[in-house]
Amino acid sequence: MFMTLTDMGFNQYVPSLCAGHWVEAPERGAGFPAGRALPQAGRGLGVVVTETALSGAGVLGCKAVDLPTEGWALRMDEVAFPVGAVAHRHTHSGAGWRYLVSGSLRIESAAGEQVMRKGDCWFEPENTPVRAVALHQSGITRFVRAMVIPLSAMGQSTFQLCDPSDGDLPRLQVTHRHFDQPYQVDAG
C-alpha cells in the first residue's frame, strides 16, 4: 500500500482505501488547533492510502507503508511547539507524513539532521527514532501529522521515548488529535 500527501493542486480521482484532509483556521494560540481535519477527501492538505503509488500535480510525497493485517486506523492530528520546545528522541507505532504549517523545526534521525520550514513535509517510518527541536524565537511551530496506526493505538498516544529518563525533561509541545478513523481489512 502507499500513503500520499497532497495539496490543493491534487485533482486526480483514484480508488482509495481511505482519505483525510486538513484546512487551516485562524490562529488562536498553542492551546488550540491551527485547523480542522475530516476523515474524507476534500480541499486542503490531504492524505490518501491507495494500492498504487501516486505522482503528478498536487502530490507532495508518496511512500510505501505496511498496514497492520488485523486492522488499522488513519490518524490526523497537529503538534504545536512553543519557543524552546523539544520532542526528545522518540518513536511512533505508526508510519506517516508530517507537514510544517508554521515556524521552523530541526529534525534529527538516523538519516541525519534536516531543518524544516513552513511548507516542508517529511515521512517518518514506523518505530524509527527521531528528535525534533523548535528553532524559532517567537510564535508557534506547528505541523500536521497523518499516520496509519494499529487499531490498538486508537484514542491513545503513539509517542514512545527511546530513553525513559527523558520523561523527566520538560515536554512543552501540545498535540491536538483531529480524528482516528478505523479501517478493517475484509477477509473475503
How is this structure best summarized?
The protein has 188 residues and is an all-beta fold.
Percentage beta strand? over 45%
* Topology as a string of helices (H) and strands (E): EEEEEEEEEEEEEEE
- Name the average pLDDT: 91
Low-confidence stretches: none
Structural class: mainly beta
What is the C-alpha radius of gyration, as a whole number of Å? Answer: 16 Å
Sheet having the most strands: 5 strands, antiparallel
Helicity range: under 10%
* Oligomeric form: single chain
What's the number of helices?
Answer: 0
C-alpha end-to-end distance: 18 Å
Q: Could you give the order of strands across the largest sheet?
A: 3-2-4-1-5
Q: What is the general shape?
A: globular
Count all strands and give the number.
Answer: 15
Describe the structure.
With 188 residues, the chain is an all-beta fold. It is 0% helix and 52% strand. It has strands at residues 2-6, 18-24, 35-38, 45-50, 59-64, 72-81, 86-92, 95-102, 104-109, 112-117, 121-124, 130-134, 141-150, 159-161, 174-183. The strands form three sheets. It has a five-stranded antiparallel beta sheet with strand order 3-2-4-1-5, with no helix packed on it. The protein has a five-stranded antiparallel beta sheet with strand order 11-8-13-6-15, with no helix packed on it. A five-stranded antiparallel beta sheet has the order 10-9-12-7-14, with no helix packed on it. A hairpin with a 2-residue loop joins strand 9 and strand 10. The model has no long low-confidence stretch (mean pLDDT 91).
